[in-house]
Amino acid sequence: MTLQPGQRAALRRGALAAAPLLVGMMPFGVVVGLAMVSAGLTQAQAVAMSILVFAGSAQLAVLPLFIAGAPLWVMCATGLVVNLRYVIYSAVLAPYFDQLSRPWRALLSYITVDGIFALYVGRHQPADGDPHKHWYYLGGSLVMWVGWQLASWIGIFAGALIPKSWSLEFASTLGLIALLLPLLFDRAVVWGALAAGGVVLAAARLPLNLGLLAAIVAGVLVGLAVARFGAARS
Amino acid sequence: METTGWALIGGMAVIAFVARAIFILPGGAFSLPPTAERVLRYAPAAALMAIIVPSLALSQGAIALSFENVRLVAGLFAFGIALATRSILLTIVGGMLALTLARWLLG
Known about the structure:
The complex is a heterodimer. By secondary structure, chain A is mainly α.
């Protein structure tokens, strides 16, 4: 495929803009790689997961459930909830990409990650007249994709060398703690998360999975209630 | 466990793609109602907390809220590091060191 100069320039601009994001993303990729194999996935499965799913926080979130032997539908429901931010991104990005062909839209959907979404939306408008802006998005996303796969594979193959006695599966819980904190951006989210933590403990005697889903529902309801109460008061 | 692993990967692959493609693939302009956007924001934090809490505070299915529970101690320490540094790497390294140290101290 030959690219026009404008397309190639946009691809390169996107790739260069993404490069600094690798510093933060690659250690996380290594951790997710390690976590997948220490949870009991085979190396082939872990490589397949990192290519096919390509969603680090959701991958990390389902691993403790996989270790605990949760049913498949509960793991998938949890993965969906953790991926809900992508639904917001999808709504924001749709008008940017609606002139593109269906394969292009499918490719850009698959390859969407947080950092490039933020860069792109900050830099471009849906109707800003730049015909090559999707090349910018692709360039940045490709850098992130390659960086993620390399980091993840390092974790997967290093994980096999680390002895079980190190309790490396605890690293996935620690990774989730680090992912949770930036989400706690206002009072309503904090109260919602605390309610979810309380409900999941209170429901510890129920089969694990019912407690988890009840906790998520309770967290959302408490978050909505706190937001409404706070808005009414101020 | 190997079959469950493949089923999980397949299910998660579909979910991850559909979540990202749901508005992009049909095309056109959409705007989410504010309540829907709130729910989409609160649910992930609630889910992560609901996964973290049992793996710290439960021991063999029973609630273990004491300083003898090394995972709880290490997890709380990791919360502190995450709050102070906002770094995934430091949180994980610090939390693993805290777990090792707590095990050694409480033997």
